[in-house]
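Query structure, 314 tokens:
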């Protein structure tokens, strides 16, 4: 990955002046899917790009080492070889594999030599309500076990109370505990009350040194939406323009169709530029999405839609 975001001093004036015009966001989001579309070879190319940006994820209570090993096998070969051959494409892999802490060890073993990083959810995921010292210790244990990326959850209560200093200090401590591992901060946008809170929380997390900001845990009633993605992308752009520091973006939760992945990539390209459509700066947290993308790629080649069981996720 490129150089990391070192963070910046907490600027409460900048936070206070950050506001969101909801009708403007809704108009922009409503216009995007109909106004921008890609077809044929271009669509296949963008779908392959989406796969390379995917954090292939399993966060179920019944995860087993066998499940994780199968997921990692799919991460190494996310698209069937006959489809890649027909598209004249070299081998590709996903951006990362995302698991709970206790599944890091089988993931490390299964991904050895692949270059695919392991991301671990941490800090009392998904609610983030365990004692602070335990949340910090959990990060350190996951890094020690082999995680190269840590997805932490934000204290929603502090956002709702406007405790920006508290958020900044917490994320800064999490960043320090990560060491060389990259830090993704999950905002849980569906639980922050207002779009302005989403924007302000994004900004504070970046000031605290987050390498990525992420929409959701995937466990909330409302997860990644184009509206929240737009708001967070514009905060990334504002932060980059003011500081020169690059921060990545990860929508997660509820992204299940190839069309949704294309809409997200188009949004990134228009708002932040083509560099934010690559895995160093853009990730998609998903599991079932891969099956639909692979199915669309086969349709592009054959003109026929295959049954989903021809494209198992893992």
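Result returned for the query:
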């Amino acid at each position: 990955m490129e150089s990391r975001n070192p963070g910046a001093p907490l600027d409460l004036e900048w936070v206070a002046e950050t506001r969101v015009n909801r009708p403007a966001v809704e108009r922009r989001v409503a216009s995007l899917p109909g106004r921008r579309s890609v077809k044929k070879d271009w669509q296949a190319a963008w779908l392959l790009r989406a796969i390379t940006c995917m954090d292939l994820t399993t966060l179920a209570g019944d995860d087993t080492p066998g499940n994780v090993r199968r997921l990692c096998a799919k991460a190494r070969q996310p698209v069937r070889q006959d489809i890649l051959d027909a598209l004249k494409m070299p081998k590709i892999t996903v951006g990362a594999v995302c698991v709970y802490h206790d599944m890091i060890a089988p993931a490390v073993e299964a991904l050895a030599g692949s270059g695919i990083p392991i991301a671990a959810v941490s800090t009392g995921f998904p609610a983030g309500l365990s004692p602070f010292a335990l949340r910090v210790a959990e990060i350190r244990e996951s890094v020690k076990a082999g995680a190269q990326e840590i997805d932490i959850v934000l204290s929603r209560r502090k956002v709702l109370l406007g405790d920006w200093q508290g958020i900044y200090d917490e994320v800064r401590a999490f960043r320090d505990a990560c060491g060389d591992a990259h830090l993704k901060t999950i905002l849980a946008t569906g639980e922050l009350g207002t779009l302005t809170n989403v924007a302000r929380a994004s900004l504070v997390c970046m000031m605290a040194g987050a390498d990525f900001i992420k929409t959701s845990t995937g466990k909330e009633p409302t997860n990644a939406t184009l509206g929240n993605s737009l708001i967070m992308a514009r905060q990334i752009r504002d932060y980059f323009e003011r500081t020169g520091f690059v921060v990545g973006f990860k929508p997660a939760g509820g992204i299940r169709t190839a069309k949704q992945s294309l809409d997200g990539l188009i949004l990134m390209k228009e708002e932040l530029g083509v560099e934010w459509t690559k895995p160093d700066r853009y990730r998609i947290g998903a599991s079932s999405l891969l099956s639909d993308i692979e199915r669309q790629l086969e349709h592009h080649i054959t003109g026929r839609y295959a049954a989903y069981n021809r494209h198992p996720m893992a």
